[in-house]
Amino acid sequence: xxxxxxxxxxxxxxxxxxxxxxxxxxxxxxxxxxxxxxxxxxxxxxxxxxxxxxxxxxxxxxxxxxxxxxxxxxxxxxxxxxxxxxxxxxxxxxxxxxxxxxxxxxxxxxxxxxxxxxxxxxxxxxxxxxxxxxxxxxxxxxxxxxxxxxxxxxxxxxxxxxxxxxxxxxxxxxxxxxxxxxxxxxxxxxxxxxxxxxxxxxxxxxxxxxxxxxxxxxxxxxxxxxxxxxxxxxxxxxxxxxxxxxxxx
Amino acid sequence: xxxxxxxxxxxxxxxxxxxxxxxxxxxxxxxxxxxxxxxxxxxxxxxxxxxxxxxxxxxxxxxxxxxxxxxxxxxxxxxxxxxxxxxxxxxxxxxxxxxxxxxxxxxxxxxxxxxxxxxxxxxxxxxxxxxxxxxxxxxxxxxxxxxxxxxxxxxxxxxxxxxxxxxxxxxxxxxxxxxxxxxxxxxxxxxxxxxxxxxxxxxxxxxxxxxxxxxxxxxxxxxxxxxxxxxxxxxxxxxxxxxxxxxxx
DNA sequence: GCAAAAGTGTTGTCCTTACACCCATGC
DNA sequence: GCATGGGTGTAAGGACAACACTTTTGC
Lengths: 249, 249
Description:
2 copies of one chain form a homodimer.
Chain A: H1 6-11, H2 22-27, E1 31-44, E2 47-54, E3 64-65, E4 67-70, H3 77-89, E5 95-102, E6 114-121, E7 137-140, H4 151-168, H5 182-193, H6 199-209, E8 212-218, E9 228-232, H7 234-240
Chain A binds a DNA duplex through α6.
């Protein structure tokens, strides 16, 4: 077996070989700077968008970067992600989920930094960007290039996560206005999944789920026949969430 | 907007406001000890098992703990997880996947420690445990209690991950011997998903996938009619992996 | 011959897919 | 009236769920 480090042996009492001073134990661990990076998706003009800033860092001059920051002492990482979102965009109450941790020792040019990637979804219309430092703005997902660090890889991981997730959970509504037409919803799915879907089947699918509430309102200012506007029935969804079993690969 | 910390302002050059010394930047970040915890699943006697040790730590005396260790300097976390597995069980070439990062500042009594949970699947028969320090042994998943730290929560997260994952990917075969009967396979699914499945439909499902290779061998030493033994056709699976699109929630 | 599990088919239901026409509105 | 997208139905095929009996082996 592996030889115990001297520090560990010291910490153990003689009777039970239990470590008594857990603070000393933790102090003996190597420490690593931790950051959180937020991949913030939006949807506008029938395109999936990502919020990026110019990198602060000279060697990445001209390159784009995710919104990230280090985690403060004793800050839970979920809270750090919400904090970054708030600081950079002024928004709270945004959908946010942890996706994956990236730990390649060479991923940051300044030394080892581990980063935890979070994915957020927000509605571009509802949330005007007020803080435009570092050229903060929305980029079309399909034209993303020239990223600092390993941020391209992180964005791709979040995109894959989103593609999978949106098919199994009602996330997409976070990217749309409260009231939306079926066409907008379909455009959203098509943009994220990168496929085209049959309009009739798409509508039938959502009709059969019976999770859309007809607001009685119609689209306005469209240059064609206006469609009905719907809301998603989150309450009903939460109540009827079913546990699904099936083998499929 | 958020006021820039003094250290940041210092690091920026006057012309472009770009940070020149990235090492100084990274040195200014708070540092956190990082550990990796492995939830190692096995399958034996028709039960899902988890590999646990007794906690080292006095205040958790008598409690069970996951196999974990801190990440070494400049060690990628995936590598750390493989290392722990190797050190503790002597095994390599084991299925392993990152599940989630846990960062509650109070999760470790010795101070803040962030841990990244990994899930491994291995075949209990093929891998005899040779290193039994800290009472290392297999516990039935259903009788797990009395865990140190937040390890109960971590195990549950990995179990949920496994339940979902096994339905969509051919992971389960990692828990079985190379050659297995359909009954063993079904028992595995039933144990992990906590449901009972119709035997005929289960067999039909796998027959229609056409991913099992009939080895021509039969079970031996069973007190009833022996079943055929199969292998999983990983090559064929990899070649035909299809991208699935469908909305279902 | 008895216990225990292997092995096998059919039917009904539901879901998915593919596909085409008329309707309402803005211009 | 023309362009644009809204809104709808049907038929065929495929997947899944429910269900029972015969066969093989060990003991």
